[in-house]
Amino acid sequence: MQSTQMQIDHDSFRALLGNYPTGVAVITGLDPRGEPLGMVVGTFTSVSLNPPLVAFLPMKTSRSFTALREASDRFCVNILAADQEGVCRKLAAPGERKFDAVPWRLSPEGNPIIQGVVGWIDCEFANIVDGGDHYIVLGAVKSMGLERDALPLLFFQRGYGRFSQGPLSAADERQLLRSVRLAEVAREEIEAIAAELSVGCSVIAPAGSDAVYVAVADSSASSQGKDRLGVRAPMAPPLGALLVDSPNSISEELWLARLGKNAEAVEKAREQLARVRERGWSISLMGSLSPAELEEAIDTYSCPQRTPEQERRFFSTVLSMFDMHEPAELNEGDRYDVMHLSVPVKRADGTTALVMRLSELPPQMQGADIKRILSRLQSAAANVEVLIRGHLANS
After folding, report:
1. Which of 1, 132, 151, 268 has a CB 3.0–4.6 Å from the CB of 82, allowing a cystine?
2. Exposed, middle or buried by CB within 10 Å (0-12, 13-18, 19+), for 86?
3. What is the pLDDT of residues 174-216, one digit of tens each?
4. Topology annotation, domain 15-162
């Protein structure tokens, strides 16, 4: 079979490959005088786990690579963080003594580790292979270290950027702003119930695959709720059941999909969702996880620069609380430590616009007291529904 090879235009080839993002790393070493050497690469990659091998691809005309290769039989890969674009530009610029303005320390193998990198990998030159106008440099890993849990610096279409978590369900930000305005209509009501019960009262709105605290009032002794305004929490089982399938929110299918292949957890989440929909309210009890630990986890998730690993840790934290959500029964004589008690605020068409949530509740509440407070919260939500409908009719 005869094949025909296309004539590849170099500029078009470069432009096309520019649509594939790459990580940015700095290859470092020391010259014979002990001065740091370095070159910025966008071609670093892992090659093998057994034995551990990595690679990068310098141009054959690179004087920086020639200096590194002639100086030592070892080098260090520094994986730059998303906030180190300035470091990258300093080290990529022509000139001498580029490390004068870049803090660094020596690695176990005697190579520069740049301060603030995501991680570093000390290597020994294992092989150098011809790769057209580049070399393919294989490095045998000798030691390594993770410096900080941060997003990496990316190179894409001749510009620098960062990784962004992709939501499973896109949020309409204009709708979120409308929800903020609706929450302000409820301001007097949430402040009144917070003061009356000496608790925290929040209003939560859907934002795609997240839920956002859009109004808070806190008259509890701890006052923890005052810091929740603007905080995001994921719409993932067992969280967010009252907002599933509401406008500007996640669907039941995608909500359950965030549990992955854990069939037991998926079935349990379905049961909890059905229970919440049937009785029209939601409750979360305290487990082994303290409120402070949960707040810390939610704060991490709410950070727009969170890493995938941080998100995985958050979901692991939430799953550890699974059995403390939506108990089937609340016996009036039994005592419970309640983390959250939530009810929906409905639009005229019956869809959920917002959720009102009580937190910072007293410990060891009797089931009868929880039901009394729930009734008060439902009454407040009904008042807010009237206010919202009036607001929408006049807007």
Report:
1. 151
2. exposed
3. 787 888 888 888 899 999 999 999 999 999 999 888 899 999 9
4. Pnp Oxidase; Chain A (2.30.110)
